[in-house]
Design goal:
Layout: E1 11-16, E2 22-28, E3 36-41, H1 52-60, E4 63-68, H2 88-107, E5 112-117, H3 119-122, E6 135-139, H4 151-172, E7 174-175, E8 185-186, H5 187-197, H6 210-216, E9 221-226, H7 234-243, E10 249-254, H8 268-271, H9 275-290, H10 308-315
Helix pairs in contact: 4-5
Length: 320
Amino acid sequence: MTNPAAAQADTPQQIHAADGYSLGARVFGSLTQARAVVLIHGAMAVPQRYYAAFSNYLARRGFLAISYDYRGVGASRPMALSGFEASARDWAELDARAAMGFAQRLAGPRPLFSVGHSFGGQITGLIDEARQVDAAVMVGVQLGYYRMFSAAMQARLLGSFGVLLPLVSGLWGYAPGRFGLGEDLPKGVAEEWSKWCLSPGYLRDHVADASARFARFDRPTLLFSFSDDDYAPKATVDAMVWALASAPLIHRRFAPSDLQARSVGHFGFFRRQREDLWREVVDHLDAHIAGNASPLRSREPHSFDLFSEDIQADLEFGRS
């Protein structure tokens, strides 16, 4: 592993998981000048480069930001993905756990924060180390049982998770991104994710202690969700909020019109220069650094209309 003390702006790093697998990572900012460290856990099938603009923003605001790729994706992809063994639980228990250890070594006495996007927030139910942060931010995090989605999405998800992904991963030895995922996924990750999505309790039906881990998570949390996010509809986000029973939590829910945007969806928080939302993240973290954070209270999400054109814009977002 590269010496953490040498990490400077946008520096490639290698993080070694407990089983010896090497993960590609990047560190944004100056370690000597950073007042805190922020670890970014990415979404399913979303490479770390997607979070570069947000990471650079954090670095400009005096944080050291760390992003990484789960095994099989992006800078952590092997030469051949067909037959490569990895699961979603490996992503948490091996990869996220290793990234947490790396971030803790970098942070030293500084505060350590986490930002979880979609699957990156679900990690709180998969590893106890997720609690070893001073505060957390979650974006589009859900417990995504397919029947909690719209009728149209239920049909699409049932076809994808019940038929298409098992079929193509069996044929190719991995799940090609061109079948609606955006990025190629290891076969085991796609198959496990499919099982979760088809189960009423999502990952809690397959990971025995996941519910207890969610309930034990007690870090002050700022959660963002969006009315046009077809991958995290309100029911699935509410299920996550209820699962995080011990976390002092603020739920900030927006419609695109609140942000003078045509759409935000599942990816827009990070895709554009959303400094209006990013400032809220920095304010949340700065308050905890200063030790004067106001008590967080659960906030009842607003009710917004969901427009089909916004859903389609999100589904067609360039993830190739």
